[in-house]
Each structure stands twice: as C-alpha cells, then as structure tokens.
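Fold Annotation — chain and its backbone
Next Lines — sequence and tokenised fold

***
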Amino acid sequence: MNEVSSGKRTLWSRAADMAAKAPPERNRYVDFLRAFSILAVVIGHWLVAAPYMKDGAVQGGHLLGILPWSQWLTWGFQVMPLFFLVGGFSNGMSWAANRRSNGSYSDWFVNRIQRLINPVLPLFLIWTLFALFGTVLGVERRVVALAAQLALIPVWFLSVYLIVSALVPYTHRVWKRYGLASFWMLVAGAILVDLLSIRFGVPHINFANFAFVWLAVHQLGYAWGDGHFASPAKAALWGAGGLIALGLLVGLGPYPVAMIGVPGSDLSNSMPPTLALLALGIAQTGIALALEPAARRMLESARLWTGVVLVNGMIMTIYLWHLTAFVLVLVIAWLMGGVGLNVAPGSGAWWMARPLWFGLYLIALTPLIMLFAGFEQARRTEKDRPAPQIPTWRRLIALLLICIGLAATAAISIASPMGVTGVRLWVVALPFIGTALAGFGPAYDLSQRLR
C-alpha cells in the first residue's frame, strides 16, 4: 500500500471516527449545506474565470461577460446566502449554549474568530513572499498584483462574516425579543439603502447593505434553529416568494441578472449586496429548508455522512486555497507556451475542456489541502491556556484591524505597484496585529514567549 492511498485512508478513517461520534440530535443537514455552499463557490469560481492567450500574453477573460446567458447560472452558484443561513443556525445554537453554561463573551468571541482566521494567516504569508520575491526577481508588477489579488479574493467574505459573528449576542437578543420582525426590519433597511443609492444616487450608502442583507439572512438562520421552517410546505412558500420577488426585481427593476459582478456592468448585485441578492437568499433558504426532511434521511447513510464530515474538516482550507490552485495551473500552462489557453472561452471546445481543467485544479489543490488543513483543524484542548479575558475596546480594535486587512486584501491586493518590496506591508500586518490583540495567533504567542 503506497503512502498516498494510506494518507487517503487515514483521512477517511478519521472522518469516519468523527462521524460516528456525532450526537444523534445533531442536525447533519447544517453540515451538508455548509459543505455544499462552499464547494459550489469553488466550482463557480473555476468556471467563471476564463483566461486565454492573446498576442503572447494571458488575458483575464470572464465567462459572464463573454456569454451573457451564463449569468443565469449565478442563481445557482451564488450560494453565499446559504453560508450565512447556516452561520445563523450554528451561531444561534452556539451562543445559546454559551449563555446556558454562563460562558463569557471573550471565550466565545475568540474561539469563533480563531476558527475562521487561523487558516487565513498562512495564505497571507505565502502570497506576501510571492509578491516580495516576484518583485525582487523582476516579475512585472502588474502580473504579481493580478495573481495575488485573484488568489486572495476569497478573504473578502471573511471580513463580513467576522463582523456578523461578532454581533451575534446583540442580533440573537433582538431575535428572541422580536422574532421574524427583526428580519423584516433588516429587509426594510436594504430596501431603503437601494432606493437611496440607485434611485437618488446617494454615494457610498450602498455599502450599508453589507450589514442589512447579510444580517437579514443570518436572522433566518436563527428562525431555522427555532423551528420556524419545520413545515416543508411553509419553507416552500418562502422559496416561491423569494423567487417571485427576485424575478420582479430583475425583470421590472434595475437589477442585473447576474448575482455576482460582471465586468462592464454599472450595477453589481454582490459588491455590495443588493435587494436582489437578498431575494435570492430568501429563495435559497425556502428551497433548502423545504428539502431538509428528505436530505436528513439521506444523510443517515454512514458513507455520505462521513464524506460530509471529511469535507467540513477542511472546508475553509478548500475555500481559501482553491484560487491559488487555479493560479498555479495557469502559470504552469503559460510557462509551457500557453498550452490549453488558445481556445476561445465559451466555445464548444472550451466547454469540452472544462473537465480536464477542473481535474488539474484538483490536482494542484490537493497538496495545498494536505499542507495547510492543519491550521483549520487545530482546536483548543483542555491543557491549552483559556481564552484571555480581553476588554471590549480591545476586542473591537482587533476585529476592525482584521476586517480592514481582509477587505483591503480583496479590494486592492497585497501587492503594491510602488515601493521597494512590492508589498503593501500595512495590509499584510493588519490581520496579524488584530489576532494578537484578540489574544491568539502567532503574534500573540510570540509576545507571550518574550515576557
């Protein structure tokens, strides 16, 4: 038995052990939706990016701009609403359990954020080194910046999700007091923001919908946890209502068909999110929860449940590194004279080649998962130090620094067009400083050793 097959068996056996230990009351469908949503994002990213060779240089083609009909596919592949729905369910259950055990907000806050930010730090380091040495070795700065920005696109989502998670004690309290009215208040806020932004042209107000839209979907996760969607018929009505609203907003309103940004489009439904994306989130919530009873019966299969556990154990690693794998394959193809990149994106030959390219992406992604999944799977043990009781002001500053760093990474890239290093060191430093202030991470560990 070779080492590769042995490694695979080890991973599977570990997942099988974890799957067998899952308490019977655990809602396996939550884990399934989490894995499904992230894998759909990965497949969507690999599909929509359509690079090709022109005049000896690689051009960054975008499938949605090349084939307008493909924009309808985003109604299925834009599944970030499902992730926020699952987040609302999980965060609500976790926070309620923390309250019942008289746990502190500091412990809860640090543990939730640590699980999200730990896998990001090695990604930052690797791409910082790439940008630094690429610049030193004379690689064109535009190419370095493009590669780094493409590979680090996934981190934008974490900056939003971290803030949504940090607000759980407040949003959960509002949910317990007002129920679904808290959801509709956020919907009203999203409507007002889009009205001010699109109809009256108020600048920058549309960024408020990062809060209104995603918090609204997160509230639906609380509703799910409290049994508001226990009836499949009721959930199906929500799904139908969301689809009807989405159809009206796109058909009669100003919103584009695509649920992600399209090059050249005046309005993006995702950056920042719009009322149309919220309608999609309502539709996906209703459809997903209408299917829950059947899906939970399906997940009684030990093999399928083990697969879900396996994917969930490395889900953030897959999400964070899948575009790095894409870039690696692209660079190798370019170094080989542009092999496979001379096919026109969207053509029949291009579609026929997708399975081969996806296979190459998976081959490139597998060693990255093996190398970096440990950062995600690390958990506190009883012999580890407890989460430090840090003051509120320090928590807030830590959260802001981490989120600003992540958002800036996705928006402007860590690679700099100026300077000696070719790296925006302040962007790279912010998440590390934030984790140190929050009481975990390598910077914190170093400071503890130096005391």
